[in-house]
Write a structure and sequence with these properties.
The protein has 219 residues and is mainly α. It contains 8 helices and 5 strands. Strand 1 (171-172) and strand 2 form a beta hairpin.
Length: 219
């Protein structure tokens, strides 16, 4: 049997997963955990069993429409937002691009598919007064971890996943720095982190100032 013929019978799942016989795919700027979730939740259930040689642009466009209407996987009704669908599109387009490179497909069916446009929005920031109210409420909370979480969030602007991904060796008490190297997320009700950035060189380095108070002088 010709090599190309064998590859063409592979399903779409093969090209969008980390199978040893297929090229693992992850769009640039997309965390490994997000790519894994998009593949397992939004691609495999709809296109996973379809032979790659039978996959067409219309299949992909119908997938985007289905995800926009009923794509949520958290038990709540409704569809996915345009940004998540676009991430799915980038993942599928890259995976099929590898299939083209390896001579399985004459054309990339995802190239002509149109994911929904992502509308630009300006994130709202708390005012200094609102931050003060938040810190006061956290200070009186009985949960020590919540106080530390809120203070770090207010001081750094880090995302929830980045805050939850912190480990003790990310904190340097002597230098007064904290480095965000990875983000923690939930996939299939299990916690997962993206691959730590090498030596933290791409992580966010935040100088938080002296963390040790000077010794008290006797009166």
């Amino acid at each position: 049997m010709p090599l190309v013929g064998r590859h063409r019978r592979r399903s779409t799942t093969c090209w969008t997963s980390g199978s040893p016989t297929c090229k693992p795919t992850r769009p640039s700027g997309c965390e490994p955990s997000a790519a894994t979730a998009n593949s397992s939740h939004h691609l495999r259930p709809y296109l996973g069993t379809l032979p790659i040689s039978s996959l067409g642009t219309l299949h992909i466009q119908r997938l985007y429409d289905q995800l926009a209407q009923h794509g949520r996987k958290d038990g709540k009704p409704g569809g996915l937002g345009p940004r998540t669908i676009r991430q799915v599109h980038l993942l599928l387009r890259q995976a099929l691009g590898y299939a083209m490179k390896w001579h399985d497909l004459p054309a990339n069916p995802a190239a002509d598919a149109e994911p929904p446009a992502v509308t630009a929005h300006t994130p709202a920031a708390l005012t200094p007064e609102q931050v003060g109210i938040l810190l006061t409420a956290a200070h009186h909370d009985r949960r020590p971890w919540l106080r530390a979480f809120v203070v770090l969030a207010a001081a750094t602007g880090a995302r929830n996943g980045e805050l939850c991904g912190l480990e003790w060796h990310d904190l340097d008490l002597e230098a007064g720095t904290v480095r965000f190297r990875q983000a923690l997320s939930s996939i299939d009700q299990q916690l997962a982190t993206g691959q730590p950035r090498p030596d933290g060189t791409r992580g966010k380095l935040l100088v938080v100032g002296p963390l040790k108070t000077p010794p008290a002088r006797p009166c």
